[in-house]
Amino acid sequence: MLQYRTVPVTPFQQNCSILWCDETREAAVLDPGGDVPRILAAIEELDVAPRLILLTHAHIDHAGGAGRLARELALPIVGPHEGDKFWIDGLVQQAAMFGFPQAEPFMPVRWLKDGDTVAVGRTTLAVRHCPGHTPGHVVFHNAEAKRAFVGDVLFAGSIGRTDFPGGDHQTLIDSIVQRLWPMGEDTVFVPGHGPESTFGDERRHNPYLRGT
Ligand SMILES: [Zn+2]
Ligand SMILES: [Zn+2]
Questions:
Q1: Least enclosed by CB within 10 Å: which of 82, 118, 172, 175?
Q2: Is 3.40.50.150 the CATH classification of the domain at 2-209?
Q3: Strand runs (DSSP E) across 77-203, as ranges?
Q4: 208: CA distance to ligand 1 center in Å?
Q5: Residue ranges per structural domain of the chain
Q6: Counting ligands in written order, which one lies closest to the CA of residue 9?
Q7: What are the per-10-residue average pLDDT scores of the chain (212 residues)?
């Protein structure tokens, strides 16, 4: 069964999540945006064995610590979708633009696409491509635990910004309706920022998603 702990990182309080399989204690670090020492301390405290880094998308607050963490722990970086390559290529400029410490450049060993799966120990994450906030944004779904890690696609009471290069409002709404809602009303999602919620609660109460 999939377990996880969320560690908020960076001045943007981005939810880095450590996911692990409770049978093997093999783990994935999802969206290590920064504050790498804090992530390393959580890994040690949880006593899990990190095997890979997962990225939902390549904004600096989600990906800024990926290069350093990959180097320090010799981990492969998996995801996001290739549509975010321009954000990875521009990581240095992103750090300057948002006043982040300098980020180590990296390149994923594997791009993800809709319908892919990623193993964490004996648990499996299903990959859905959810463009709109960024063109290459993906989310990770574990049906057994009824959990989804959705980055900046959807928040409790809000949705992702679409005013960055490559963003598009209607594309984001389509991603939410076509790819998140089918995961089920009782599925709990971990957003990139802020508290968890369920898809059912957002479908009923989120002001940006009325009538979906
Ligand atoms: Zn973002
Ligand atoms: Zn973010």
A1: 82
A2: no
A3: 77-78, 117-120, 123-129, 138-142, 147-151, 154-155, 158-159, 188-191, 197-198
A4: 17
A5: 2-209
A6: 2
A7: 97 97 98 97 98 98 98 98 97 91 95 98 98 98 98 98 96 98 98 98 96 88
